[in-house]
Every structure is written in C-alpha cells, then in structure tokens.
Design brief:
This protein is of the alpha/beta class. It has four domains: 7-127, Response regulator (Rossmann fold); 158-314, Rossmann fold; 318-391, Orthogonal Bundle (Helicase, Ruva Protein, domain 3); 401-445, Arc Repressor Mutant, subunit A (Orthogonal Bundle). The protein is 46% helix and 16% strand. It contains 18 helices and 18 strands. A five-stranded parallel β-sheet has the order 2-1-3-4-5, with helices on both faces. The chain has a five-stranded parallel β-sheet with strand order 7-10-13-6-14. Strands 8-9 form a two-stranded antiparallel ribbon. Helix 4 links the parallel strand 4 (78-83) and strand 5. Helix 2 (37-44) runs parallel beside helix 3 (63-73) and helix 16 packs across helix 17 (424-431). The chain is elongated and about 100 Å long.
Length: 448
C-alpha cells in the first residue's frame, strides 16, 4: 500500500481485468480489488474509498444493484461503471442511479485515470468545504477569532481557562493580528461579560489629556473643563478595560496605572478623594516591551503587573494554514453585509493570496476581501489588489493575446512540473494531456 494515497474500489469478475486495473492505478492510488459485489460491500466497511470502478455484468450481483447499495452506504462516492455492452439504456440507468460516468470496454487507461482523478479531486474539495463550515461554526463563540493552527488553538485554550479569573492580561503581536478581538473574547468568556467593555487607544491620546481621558475630571479643574467628565476607568467599572498600544503610555501615566493595579482606586483630575473601582485590565502592544524595559522607557514593575497572563499572537505569515478559513469567513461575512452572492475565488488568485506575506495581517486580509466583494458584480472573484499590485488582472503593458496565452501556459506547466517533482508522466496526467503533447509544449515554450 502507498501511504497517504487514495483508496479505489475496483470490482470485476474477470481476473485479467483486475490485474490490468491494479497495474495502471498502482503508481498513484491504492486499488482494492474485488471479484464480486458481496466482497465489495464487505470492503466498504473496512476502507474509506475515494472512488469506485464497477463492472456491469457480474454473476451474483450485477453492477447496477451494487451501485445502489454503494450509494446507500456512501451517497457522495463517485462511481465509474464499465462494461463490454455498448447499450445506451444501461448507460442511462447507471447515470440515473448516481454513477459519475459510464465507459465501454475496451477503453484507454488514460480515460479511466482522468475520471478517477476528477472524482478524487471533487471528493477532496467537498471534504475541505465541510471542514471549513465546521470550523467556522466552532469558532463563532470567539466572535471574529478564526483559526485552526496549534498556536491559535492555544490562544483559545487560554481564553477558555480564564473565564472565572480576573487576572491582568498582556497581549502582544504585530499590528492587525487581532489583539482587540482577543481582548473582547476574554471579556465575553468572563464573569464580567454583561458589564462594560471599554476600549482605550493609548497611541491616539495627546499626552496632556491622558489623565483626564482615563480618570475623568471635575468641573473647573483646568481651563476648558466646563463640566464634570467621567473617565474611561470609571466607565469600565465592574467590567473590562482594554488598553491598546500600552507601550505609548507616558511615564507619568505608567506610575498612576501601577497604583490602580495595586489599590483598585482612581482619582479624577481636580477630585477630592479616591474612587474605588473593580476593573479587569487587558493591555496590548505591537512594540517590544522587553526592549523598552532595557532603555527605561517602560516601567519594569508595571510590566510584571500587566504580564500576569501573556498571550502572543503570531503574524498571519506564520499561520498560513488558517488563510483558507479566514478567507472563507470574510467572503461569507461581506456577502451577507453587502447582499452579494460571490461564489468563490479564482484558483490562481487564491494561490496568490496564500503565498502573499500579509504585512498588515488579518486587518489587511479583511480589507482586501471586502474590496474584492464590493468590486465584483457576481460569480467568482478573479481580480484582487495587494498593496497596489493587481493579481490575475490585466498587466500594465498589454501584449498580444497569443503571447499572453503562451506565458500563462508556460507558468502553469512550470507549476505542475514543480508539484510532481519534474515527473513528466504524472504532470501530463495532472494536466489532462498526453505525455508526448506535454513534451512538445515544453520544447516549444523553452521548458527543460
């Protein structure tokens, strides 16, 4: 058996046909050979098949009856019917009963291999779609947090384990990795979920307004303070405050935040005394706080107070396995929001999305998919812009259609050769052309 290769069920009462099937299927598949329907039904309980090939005329159970029983067992399994009888009525019956294709003996082995490849590919795509839908459903409890890689599963586990504790959390990661989503998920899974969740962007507050914004002020406490203002910490009382870009907090405010963590009290600017609060603090940064500790721009005692539960979010380029899931999620999201019916993304465009480094991380991916959905009228997304670069769109300098077609064909064959490790037989099978045709095209296009 070839490890990892798809299993193909082959049923024929002629021994020489079974040998032939085994010979031409063996390089790419694991053929399981049966001489009758009863044996085949037993094998269905022992293996997970990707495709089946059935002879029509067999002694104890004919191919049509076996086809029905196979469909009862696995309605999604693609079945090829083969027979020496060139009768249209049998072909019609087979197709009506759910056969993928009907072929007449004698046939070309390439024909069977092409049909098997199509069935296997279709089955794999359906598996992937089922997996994506299941994964999306599983992640709904984490708001917009999506991921199946081990590092993201670890993040989900930490969030789950924090639902009954109020420890301070420090989330680190590049811009756009989803730090606010993680903070919100922590809040939603905690005992404070029905209480306020207040977001503070420390990078967006002028230094002279920090204290007023965070702790509030009394009327007349400074020029322009015409009325009392409740600060962010007081608004978040009994809930969670999310301090985004905590690395931008001025030294003077770092000392005040440390005091809040120690005493659970705040004091408004111009206030007459401390106000007791109960706030869960979740902080985040895209800067290297440990380096900030070394150059004394961030207090060491505050860092250790914040870093009780550390969560590090990886950049998107380090969790590429999550990209199909994220793309599917955002496509569905914007289809619903924009009332569109975009069916999917062109395969070549999808390959570009999977290979792109995503310097803006999930935020950039979200914006790219939203823009593509907006600009696509219907059907498939065939053009996407990545940082000003058009993917699968028209090139800036137009060549003749013949030259453009030749260039596309050359690149496509190069990718197919790379995928098969340069094996010409496998490449021709993958491309659905004869090996001699492939060699001719390679010579014509300058591919050695």
């Amino acid at each position: 058996m070839i490890e990892g290769a798809p299993y193909i069920l082959v049923v024929d009462d002629e021994a020489n046909m079974l040998i032939a099937y085994k010979t031409f299927l063996k390089p790419d598949y694991n053929p399981i050979l049966c001489s009758n329907g009863t044996e085949a039904l037993q094998k269905l309980t022992e293996y997970s098949f990707s495709a089946a090939i059935l002879d029509l005329k067999m002694p104890d159970m004919d191919g049509l009856e076996l086809l029905e029983k196979i469909k009862e067992h696995d309605s999604d399994l693609g079945v090829i019917m083969s027979t020496a009888t060139n009768d249209v009525k049998y072909a019609v019956q087979a197709i009506k009963k759910g056969a993928f294709e009907y072929v007449t003996k004698p046939f070309q082995y390439e024909e069977i291999l092409g049909l098997v490849a199509k069935i296997v590919e279709r089955r794999e795509l359906r598996k992937e779609n089922f997996y994506l839908k299941s994964a999306l459903k599983e992640q709904q409890s984490f708001s917009d947090l999506i991921g199946q890689t081990s590092v993201m599963r670890n993040v989900f586990m930490i969030i789950e384990n924090m639902n009954s504790v109020g420890s301070t959390v420090l989330i680190t990661g590049e811009s756009g990795t989803g730090k606010e989503l993680v903070a919100h998920a922590i809040h939603q899974r905690s005992d404070r979920k029905n209480k306020p969740f207040v977001v503070v962007n420390c990078a967006a507050i002028p230094e002279n307004l920090f204290e007023s914004e965070l702790f509030g002020h009394e009327r007349g406490s400074f020029t322009g303070a015409f009325e009392r203002k409740i600060g962010k910490f007081e608004l978040a009382d009994t809930g969670t405050i999310f301090l985004d870009e905590i690395g931008c907090l001025p030294q003077s405010m770092q000392a005040k935040l440390l005091r809040i963590l120690q005493d659970n009290h705040i004091e408004r600017v111009g206030g007459k005394g401390p106000i007791k609060i109960s706030v869960r603090i979740v902080a985040a940064t895209n800067t290297d706080l440990e380096q900030a500790l070394k150059n004394k721009s961030f207090r060491e005692d505050l860092f250790y107070r914040l870093n009780v539960i550390p969560i590090k979010l990886p950049p998107l380029r380090e969790r590429r396995a999550d990209l199909p899931l994220l793309i599917e999620y955002f496509l569905k999201k914007f289809n619903e929001e924009l009332k569109k019916q975009i069916a999917g993304i062109d395969r070549q465009v999808m390959n570009e999305l999977l290979e792109y480094d995503w310097p803006g991380n999930i935020r950039e991916l979200k914006n790219v998919i939203e823009r593509a959905v907006v600009l696509t009228k219907n059907g498939m997304i065939t053009d996407i812009s990545l940082r000003g670069k058009a993917v699968n769109g028209m090139p800036e300098t137009l060549t003749s259609l013949k030259e453009a077609s030749a260039e596309f064909e050359k690149e496509y064959i190069k990718k197919a050769l790379a995928k098969t490790g340069g094996n010409q037989s496998e490449t021709s099978r993958l491309l659905g052309i004869h090996r001699t045709t492939l060699i001719s095209k390679m010579n014509l296009l300058g591919l050695k």
